[in-house]
Amino acid sequence: MSGIQLIFATNNTNKVIEIQSVIPAGIQVVSLAEAGINIDIPEPHHTLEANATEKSTVIHQLTHKNCFSEDTGLEVAALNGEPGVKSARYAGDNKSFTANIDKLLSNLLGEKNRRAQFRTVISLIWNNKEYQFEGICKGQITHETIGTNGFGYDAVFIPDGSDKTFGEMSLQEKNAYSHRKKAVTQLISCLQALTAN
Ligand code: IMP
Fold first, then answer.
1. Is 71 labeled as catalytic in the residue annotation?
2. DSSP H or E segment with residue 184
3. Which of 114, 129, 133, 157 could form a disulfide with 140 if both were Cys (CB 3.0 to 4.6 A apart)?
4. pTM (predicted TM-score)
C-alpha cells in the first residue's frame, strides 16, 4: 500500500497528531489546513455516525477527493450516555475543555458508578463510496483531573487495564488503549483491502 492520500476532515489538531502517529508510511493524511480548506464543518446530528458522515460528505463534495472524518464522544453510564455526541459542547457552545470537565465532574458528584467509554466513528469516502469504522475504549471517570497531556476529557479518564489517566500518558501509551487507534486500525485494514489489486 503506497501513494495513498487522504484528506482528514477536521480542524482539531490533536486528532490530526494522534491519527498521523498511527498511520503507516504509505498513507499520507492531509489536514484541512494543509489542504488549504478553511471551513467550520457542522455537527448538526444526534449520533456520532451521522455527524461523521456529514463531515466527510461536506469535504468530499468540496474537493472530490478521497477523505475521512471522525466523530468521538465520551459516553458515561451514570449519565445515560451523556455527554456523548455533545461532548465538545457539553458546557455550552464555545466552552473550553476545562468547562466541559467541570460540568462532567459536578454532574457525577457523589456518584459511585464511574463507568464510561470513549467511542470513535470514522467515516471514509473512497472512490465515492462511504465506509464506517467504530473504536471503543472502556474505562472510568476520576474524581478530579490528573495529568496535563492530551486534550478534551483525557485528564479524567482511566482506561481499563491501566492505573493512569490518558492525561498522564504519552501519545504512544494512549495509543495502546485508544478508541481512535482502534478505529484507525480498521480504516487501515479496509484501505489495504481496497487497494490490494
Ligand atoms: P468531536 O469529535 O470533534 O465532536 O469532539 C468531541 C469532543 O470529545 C472533543 O472536543 C473532546 O472534548 C472530546 N474528545 C474527543 N476525543 C477525545 C480523546 O481522545 N480524549 C479526550 N477527549 C476527547
1. yes
2. helix 179-194
3. 114
4. 0.96
